[in-house]
Design goal:
CATH architecture of the largest domain: Orthogonal Bundle
Shape: globular
CATH class of the largest domain: Mainly Alpha
Structural class: mainly alpha
Order of helices and strands: HHHHHHHHHHHHEHHEE
Largest sheet: 3 strands, antiparallel
CATH superfamily of the largest domain: Helix-hairpin-Helix base-excision DNA repair enzymes (C-terminal)
Number of helices: 14
DNA sequence: AATCCGGGGGA
DNA sequence: TCCCCAGGATT
């Protein structure tokens, strides 16, 4: 080592993991912890690309515990993209019950249609092609590429962004987080690495009450729970939402839930949605129709065929 | 950059 | 109650 070379461990530039040796140590520590303690989730391991895509669509803004049982029944019913593409969109929306964000069901159905008609029924490997699928953004495209196809890319979700900000001890923009994540991807089993980072964020390096005393990579962490949380001012953090009680989202949700059970005649929509303002219900019903979430059948609203 | 989109669980 | 959740699309 040349005289005067800075010790990257104390590099004030904010790149504490730029040193290859430190990077390798971080990878070794985290992967060892992951292989020792990982939850056995149905889409991990040798899951096929379609299963990975389905799981990632379901996991968008939705906790693992809620996805697991629905994922199982969904995959049993539609084991391939062509199988899902052949189903009526309304049945997919019905099967989405319990997950929320029902538009994801429509988008997944549309993605299955594209995969079937344009990609021979096989989930694409190319990042750009993946990201062009409905409902597939920067995160999901990389998740599928890494987890299903073994590509050396780094999916950055809310967990990974938080972990990286804390490891580096500084707030990270969206682009900066992706850059740091890319720089850390190991050549061997990049999928496991991505899973390990998310697992750490989900179980140890949590948003609210991080368990730094149990963290396998605490020795490599610039933050360690001391002082202001660098993740708090980073991109990817959850945004405050409008109040749900009384919102359009709530009424929409009730409307779609009612349609899962049966078509609802127009005059009964208000009662079915538990919303006395009939004009409001009509507006929301029309919006559902406009985006393909429902259809008018004579005088009744129903899920699309 | 802000909003919209669901709904449930944890602190 | 408030906050968070393996985000993406639209405006």
């Amino acid at each position: 080592m040349a005289a005067g070379t800075v010790d990257r461990a104390d590099d004030p530039s904010g790149e504490p993991l730029a040193d290859p040796a430190r990077r390798a140590r971080l990878q070794a520590l985290l992967l060892a912890w992951y292989h020792r303690t990982a939850r056995d989730l149905p889409w991990r391991g040798d899951a096929d690309p379609w299963a990975v895509l389905v799981s990632e669509a379901m996991l968008q803004q939705t906790q693992v515990a809620r996805v697991v049982p629905i994922f199982a029944s969904f995959m049993a019913r539609w084991p391939t993209a062509p199988a899902l593409a052949a189903a009526p969109a309304g049945e997919v929306v019905a099967a989405w019950q319990g997950l929320g964000y029902n538009r994801r069901a429509l988008r997944l159905h549309r993605a299955a249609t594209v995969i079937t008609s344009e990609h021979g029924g096989t989930v694409p490997e190319d990042l750009g092609v993946l990201q062009r699928l409905p409902g597939v953004g920067a995160y999901t495209a990389r998740a599928v590429a890494a987890f299903a196809h073994g590509l050396a890319v780094a999916p950055v979700d809310t967990n990974v962004a938080r972990v990286l900000a804390r490891l580096h001890g500084r707030a990270l923009s969206r682009a900066a987080a992706q850059e740091r994540a890319d720089a850390l991807v190991p050549d061997r089993d990049p999928g496991a690495w991505g899973q390990a980072l998310m697992e750490l964020g989900a179980r140890v390096c949590t948003a609210r009450t991080p368990r730094c005393d149990e963290c396998p990579v605490a020795p490599m962490c610039a933050w360690r729970g001391q002082g202001p949380d660098p993740a708090a001012s980073s991109a990817h953090r959850s945004r405050p939402q409008a109040r749900f009680e009384g919102s359009d989202r709530q009424v929409r949700g009730r409307l779609v839930q009612a349609l899962r059970e049966r078509p609802v005649p127009g005059p009964e929509l208000s009662a079915a949605a538990g919303e006395p303002d009939a004009e409001r219900v009509r507006r929301l019903a029309d919006a559902l129709v406009a985006e393909g979430m429902a259809e008018w059948d004579a005088d009744a609203l129903r899920l699309p065929r």
